[in-house]
Recover the amino acids of this structure.
């Protein structure tokens, strides 16, 4: 039995939830999100709780029961609080700045990297070595952060690159002459 899937989702005040044809639409102070759920799962809305029930005890249904409950919960958290990721840039002369709808980064390459900011995401660079990514869609925020990090992953010898805030990069010793 899925422990996560059986838990009801509390709907905070100021959040409107609509369920039509197994499409859950959540609207809050920060925006509006929707999620399509397979017809076999039943999503019901009580006064202040949302519950997800699975069609049977097949392995695939049990494995996805908690997933759909978590996805609906992420929608509610997104429209009330939002999600954010913070990145750090380490390296001499490495920096980032937001110009219009682009994030411009100097990462030691022969060219400047211009990353177009997708809709629904706000990117700030409070310092040249910090990038803050904010949005209401958890998947999109994580995907944008991973894409930016992939431009220059932190390397283990000098520690240069883009990393998540608080991420530990295991350092290696370089070659030594004996």
């Amino acid at each position: 039995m899925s422990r996560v899937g059986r838990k009801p989702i509390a709907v905070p005040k100021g959040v409107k939830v609509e369920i039509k044809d197994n499409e859950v639409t959540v609207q809050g102070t920060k925006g509006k999100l929707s999620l399509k759920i397979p017809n076999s799962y039943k999503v019901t809305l009580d006064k202040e709780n949302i519950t997800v029930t699975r069609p049977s005890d097949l392995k695939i249904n049990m494995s996805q029961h908690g997933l759909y409950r978590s996805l609906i919960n992420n929608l509610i958290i997104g429209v009330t609080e939002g999600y954010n990721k913070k990145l750090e840039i380490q390296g001499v002369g490495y920096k980032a700045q937001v110009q219009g709808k682009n994030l411009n980064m100097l990462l030691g390459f022969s060219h400047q990297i211009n990353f177009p900011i997708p809709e629904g995401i706000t990117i700030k660079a409070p310092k040249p070595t910090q990038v803050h990514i904010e949005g209401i869609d958890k998947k999109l925020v994580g995907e944008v952060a991973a894409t930016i990090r992939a431009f220059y992953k932190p390397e283990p010898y000098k520690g240069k690159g883009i990393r998540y805030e608080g991420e530990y990069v295991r350092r290696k010793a370089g070659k030594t002459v004996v």
In short: The chain has a mean pLDDT of 93. The chain has two domains: 3-80, 83-164. DSSP finds three helices and 13 strands in the chain. The two ends are 60 Å apart (CA to CA).
